[in-house]
């Protein structure tokens, strides 16, 4: 894989996982169903909770790192790409959550 392409693959994969998890975490509050018993929640809120459990799990992060390493193919770059993708997840998650909090407090 070309010189900077592996870095782009790693950053995009980590960012996608993080943004997906943030969106899944935000659905119940967007629907106004925070604190509502599970049996009384809408189907969308329950689906988002399930997606959140999957995307926030450790094995999803590990699968993403292995997949990024497999896509990159070159051994040294594969390891670096996996590390970059795993570093991107909490970094992007922090900034998305911070931006969402700022957006929700200004409205």
Automatic annotation (TrEMBL):
Transmembrane regions listed in the UniProt entry: 50-72
Name listed for the protein in its UniProt record: Uncharacterized protein
Region forming the signal peptide: 1-26
Domain of life: Bacteria
Keyword tags: Membrane, Signal, Transmembrane, Transmembrane helix
């Amino acid at each position: 894989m070309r010189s900077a392409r592996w870095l782009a693959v790693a950053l995009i994969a980590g960012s996608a996982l993080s943004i997906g998890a943030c969106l899944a975490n935000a659905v119940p509050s967007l629907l106004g169903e925070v604190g509502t018993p599970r049996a009384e929640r809408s189907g969308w809120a329950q689906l988002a909770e399930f997606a959140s459990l999957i995307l926030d799990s450790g094995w999803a992060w590990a699968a993403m790192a292995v997949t990024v390493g497999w896509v990159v193919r070159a051994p040294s770059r594969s390891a670096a790409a996996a590390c970059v993708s795993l570093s991107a997840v909490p970094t992007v998650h922090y900034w998305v959550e911070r931006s969402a909090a700022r957006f929700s407090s200004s409205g």
